Amino acid sequence: MDHIDRVLLTHLQQDATQSYAALGQAVGLSAGAAHERVRKLRERGAIRRTTVEVDPAAVGGAVLAYVMVDSVSWMGDSAQDFAALPEILEAHVIAGSASVLVKVRTSTTEQLQDVLRRIYAIDGVSGTQATVVLETFFERPVSPELGTG
Amino acid sequence: MDHIDRVLLTHLQQDATQSYAALGQAVGLSAGAAHERVRKLRERGAIRRTTVEVDPAAVGGAVLAYVMVDSVSWMGDSAQDFAALPEILEAHVIAGSASVLVKVRTSTTEQLQDVLRRIYAIDGVSGTQATVVLETFFERPVSPELGTG
DNA sequence: GAAGATTGCCGAATGAGATACGGTCTACGC
DNA sequence: GCGTAGACCGTATCTCATTCGGCAATCTTC
């Protein structure tokens, strides 16, 4: 994982459809060499997968909210319960007063309310505190260049 | 945006490297027809871009935190100030006591502290409240199938 | 209800690019 | 000094993306 790898990752994050020739040119390598490096990045797991970024609004995800989930019991083994709700995009165990933080996308606030109801039904959950997003400044992937700093 | 488009989006989210022939087969269409549909999804903006998913840990992003940012003035025009910090992955204006919620990834807690310091330096910011993630259950893209419900 | 226009699909052609391979150079260990 | 491993380059092949003409179904308009 050197500087060239990081530049490759950055370019691929911006556009994974570009040719290996263009990718190689961006870092001063041949297409073959660039291909080989990217293959190894996938092999090592640095690149988890190639995917498409979908506009949430286009598929019924206009309402975004973060929900702090309070609990009366250990939530460390409840990953499945949260994953079962497709509207939940992220679920994290956190340090602090609440025990789990989840990110939720729904098409309406009524559906958000329904998701909160289903979260509340999860075993051990004692309460929820939802924070609705009014405007998203930006959402972007992790910057590979950070490894430099 | 019908059912076929949603299935195409789901398949592309899982693996954007597969051939249009395979993609078409998954929805009962020819490669050409699948290609045409995907082209239109890009054109409409439903597909924003094709990208690679990078393992945060592999590029120095082991520490994840959410930060509630309190302010004394209107933060609606401060998107640039937050975007200037590459460690900030998301920034949202929220309803509630704080005014901005940001998602931060750094390699160490020391760097997290430094990011908090730089957030504090943004004009109008009066305080921050960081919540450190202990364990991530999952992070996944928005499900196109939600549009069905 | 009929003619025209639009849309979505198929199947084939072609051109570009992914992937594999042989050879060269450098760095490193013995 | 010699052998090995790793990274790169240039080339060759072969898959696949992309384009095109043609057809059927649907919608529009009169």
Keywords:
alpha+beta; 4-stranded antiparallel beta sheet; 5 helices; 2 domains; 149 residues; elongated; DNA-binding; homodimer; Alpha-Beta Plaits
Describe this structure in words.
Two copies of one chain form a homodimer. Chain A folds into two domains: 3-44, Winged helix-like DNA-binding domain superfamily/Winged helix DNA-binding domain (Arc Repressor Mutant, subunit A, Orthogonal Bundle); 56-132, Alpha-Beta Plaits. The first copy, chain A, has a four-stranded antiparallel beta sheet with strand order 3-4-2-5. The two termini of chain A are 14 Å apart. The longest helix of chain A has 14 residues, at 31-44. Chain A has helices at residues 3-14, 20-27, 31-44, 79-83, 109-120, and strands spanning 47-54, 63-71, 88-94, 100-106, 125-139. Chain A is built from five helices and five strands. In chain A, a hairpin with a 5-residue loop joins strand 3 (88-94) and strand 4. In chain A, helix 1 packs across helix 2 and helix 2 packs across helix 3. Chain A has 149 residues and is of the alpha+beta class. The mean pLDDT of chain A is 96. Chains A and B meet through helix 1, strand 1, helix 4, strand 3 and strand 4 of A and helix 1, strand 1, helix 4, strand 3 and strand 4 of B. Strand 1 (47-54) of chain A pairs antiparallel with strand 1 (47-54) of chain B, so a sheet runs across the interface. Chain A binds a DNA duplex (30 and 30 nucleotides) through residues 19-21, 29-33, 35-37, 39.
